[in-house]
Design a protein that fits this description.
Elements lengths: L1 E2 L5 E2 L1 E5 L28 H14 L4 E5 L9 H9 L6 E6 L4 H11 L3 E5 L5 H8 L4 H14 L5 E5 L9 H11 L2 E5 L18 H8 L5 E3 L2 H4 L5 E5 L5 E5 L12 E4 L4 E3 L8 E2 H7 L8 H4 L7 H13 L19 H4 L2
Parallel strand pairs: 3-4, 3-12, 4-5, 5-6, 6-7, 7-8, 8-11
Antiparallel strand pairs: 1-2, 9-10, 10-11, 12-13, 13-14
Helix pairs in contact: 1-2, 1-11, 2-3, 3-5
This protein binds S-adenosylmethionine and iron/sulfur cluster.
The site of S-adenosylmethionine has 20 residues, from β5, β7 and α12.
Length: 345
């Protein structure tokens, strides 16, 4: 198990497949000038499959979420999903994507074994989308959502971030639309993880603001806390049901005590928290052994450098050092050097 000193057990693994993206969301990336991870540092498809296999078969991971950057930009994605779907026990697999390209790939991803998608869409207005993401691709995201639903990648969840003065008036419209389309909507508070360090606590749209705005049109009843479990989203029943809406208040309503996450970056670093300033290098361990990418003698049986057992041990140790909370409320809080796009949101 991946257990920490506070007794939390990580069962949910976020795997970042790339730090690159075809959008430039203002709360995530600068327009230009971001340095990409170097190609030789990126985990290969074989290395990703091997690390996830170790996490699933030795460390108790039951949920795997692919993210990035934009995970659909990874050419080997379908093959990775297919190989992981063959694992025993089979993990549940989902994808967080901006939806561009999903219209083409949803069917193949479903056939490969992907269970679900989360698609990020912050606005129903194409002009606002262009301002927020610096790209004119609103239509592609809507087409991707349609395709995901048609392919059975359900429940399709939609993630929305509200930005002051841009789309903060859209919460009720987004909810009406999501309910009509059969998507589960979750609002995410803007977090201090953008590469350009533009986040300001005073101006961010809080979970409280979002709920107040939704209540101008809907009656919201809190879902029983037992149903929330370790899920970060607090959920509300809309107008008596059956629809629900989630709000992830990472900044103003943190859920660290119930966190069940561990993260693997595209360059093979373990992070115990989005906001961690320390990482543990699994890639070096992985490449130090004699067994290349899970095929050599150390990969399955041994306990030496680069063996499955050694990698599992390093991962357990990293999780043991997980901090109690994100530190956001500490006046000495320091934004991590690694931006959201290179961590995997
Ligand atoms: N490119 C994919 C996407 O946009 O869904 C996956 C990666 S993205 C980093 C994952 C999620 O993080 C998205 O829902 C995005 O809206 C969210 N996100 C990015 N930057 C954020 C920030 N500074 N605060 C809150 N959420 C953010
Ligand atoms: Fe790309 Fe997702 Fe970041 Fe937007 S939030 S720039 S889509 S990685």
């Amino acid at each position: 198990m991946l257990i920490d000193t506070y007794g939390r057990v990580a069962t949910d693994l976020r795997v970042s497949l790339t730090d690159r993206c075809n959008l430039r969301c203002t709360y995530c990336m600068p327009e230009e000038g971001l340095h990409w991870l170097a190609k030789p540092d990126l985990l290969t498809d074989d290395e990703i499959v091997r690390l996830v296999r170790i996490a699933v078969t030795r460390l108790g991971i039951t949920e795997v979420r692919f993210t990035g950057g934009e995970p659909l930009l990874r050419p080997g994605l379908t093959g990775i999903v297919e190989r992981l779907a063959a694992l025993e026990p089979r993990p549940r697999m989902s994808l967080t994507t901006n939806g561009i390209g999903l219209a083409r790939t949803a069917g193949a991803l479903k056939a490969a074994g992907l269970d679900r998608v989360n698609v990020s869409l912050d606005t129903l207005r194409p002009d606002v989308f262009k301002t927020l993401t610096r790209r004119n691709r609103h239509h592609d995201v809507l087409a991707g959502l349609d395709a995901a639903r048609a392919a059975g990648l359900t429940p399709v969840k939609v993630n929305s971030v509200l930005m002051p003065g841009l789309n903060d008036d859209e919460a009720p419209d987004l909810l009406s639309w999501a309910m009509a389309e059969g998507y589960e909507l979750r609002f995410i508070e803007q977090m201090p993880l953008d590469a350009q360090h533009g986040w300001r606590r005073q101006s961010m749209i809080t979970a409280g603001d979002i709920l107040e705005s939704l209540r101008t049109r809907f009656t919201l009843t809190p879902e029983a806390s037992a149903e929330r479990g370790s899920a970060p989203a607090e959920r509300w029943i809309v107008d008596g049901g059956p629809h629900r809406v989630g709000v992830i208040g990472s900044v103003t309503r943190p859920f660290c005590a119930a966190c069940d996450r561990t993260r693997l970056t595209a360059d093979g670093q373990i992070r115990t928290c989005l906001f961690a300033t320390e990482e543990t290098d699994l890639r070096a361990a992985l490449r130090s052994g004699t067994g290349a990418a899970g095929t050599g003698p150390d990969a399955d049986g041994g306990t030496g450098p680069g063996s499955d057992e050694e990698i599992a041990r390093i991962w357990r140790l990293a999780m043991w050092g997980k901090k109690a909370g994100s530190g956001l409320d500490d006046p000495a809080f320091l934004q991590p050097d690694r931006p959201m796009s290179a961590i995997g949101g």
